[in-house]
Amino acid sequence: MSNYLDISKVSIDFPTPQGPFRALDGLSLRIRKGEFVSLIGHSGCGKSTVLNIIAGLLRASEGGVALDGKEVNEPGPDRAVVFQNHSLLPWLTAFENVQLAVRQVFRGRMSRAEMRDWVEHNLKLVHMAHAMHKRPDELSGGMKQRVGIARALAMRPKVLLMDEPFGALDALTRAHMQDSLMEIQRDLNNTVVMITHDVDEAVLLSDRIVMMTNGPAATIGEVLDIDLPRPRNRVTLAENSAYNHFRQQVLRFLYEKQRKVVEMAREPDDAGASGAASRGGVAGLVHRLGRRA
Ligand SMILES: Nc1ncnc2c1ncn2[C@@H]1O[C@H](COP(=O)(O)OP(=O)(O)OP(=O)(O)O)[C@@H](O)[C@H]1O
């Protein structure tokens, strides 16, 4: 499989009152067609910035992104984004929300009847056919997120970009959504770049996990190939030694190798403390979690 999405030496400087702030520095990543890649890293390291550059919502100050051989320099329907907060239009039904995107992408190429069937097909894919005529305020958080995913899939993007798509959901709904996404992936084999803070989610869903260093001037620290066979089952994986090894490698990266957040979270009266045992508050907790990993 060839490289499909090519992120090449991307740096970005944001203007701030104190002068330019370099959020990303020389980040390169090549993603193959059909690959599922997760980005993981501490809060503020630059994950959303990477996603926004791929989406064409932000321009890199240096370097660039190419998708299927074409340079990315503005948003386009070949890169659909799913945000943490679904972003559905509240006055439209689930069906109409998906239909709006389908019309924008396929107007002139599909008849009205074809478009209707396509909208229904995508809502069925995410198990939302039964509620497609409801408005967002009549749907649960998980259902709204399903509609957001249906809308993105219905655009038939070359790349699906997901920014913590399940971050706002309770644990059980989240698990259902992850299972649905794996089912959809098995059939459609989309190219996906997903941001997550959840180590289990990253290992369960990904072909590769890209671990980012802390900013400023963040870049890729390590990349982990998750070669667990598919289909993957969360219950049996819990006892799988390879799965647990991958989990530990990610935890180790986040809480041992990239421990800067611990320093930032240290409380003022901890400043002179030496040794983990004397660390209190959030800093101590994060430190102890890291040591257990
Ligand atoms: N428009 C902007 N102007 C100035 N600084 C910015 C801007 N956008 C992002 N940043 C800074 O760039 C860095 C990366 O931000 P980004 O939102 O990409 O991080 P993140 O890893 O997605 O964080 P989180 O996990 O908390 O969502 C942060 O330090 C942030 O403050």
UniProtKB/TrEMBL annotation:
TM regions (residue ranges): none
Xref: PROSITE patterns: ABC_TRANSPORTER_1 (PS00211), ABC_TRANSPORTER_2 (PS50893)
GO terms for MF: ATP binding; ATP hydrolysis activity; nitrate transmembrane transporter activity
Location(s), subcellular: Cell membrane
Alphabetic keyword roster: ATP-binding, Cell membrane, Membrane, Nucleotide-binding, Transport
GO CC list: plasma membrane
CDD domains, alphabetized: ABC_NrtD_SsuB_transporters
Predominant location: membrane
Annotated InterPro entries: AAA+_ATPase, ABC_transporter-like_ATP-bd, ABC_transporter-like_CS, ABC_transporter_ATP-bind, NO3_transporter_ATP-bd-like, P-loop_NTPase
Ranges of residues in domain ABC transporter: 2-239
Membrane topology: Peripheral membrane protein
Domain of life: Bacteria
Similarity section: Belongs to the ABC transporter superfamily.
PANTHER family referenced in this protein's UniProt entry, alphabetically: NITRATE ABC TRANSPORTER ATP-BINDING PROTEIN, TAURINE IMPORT ATP-BINDING PROTEIN-RELATED
Record protein name field: ABC transporter ATP-binding protein
Organism per entry: Alloalcanivorax marinus
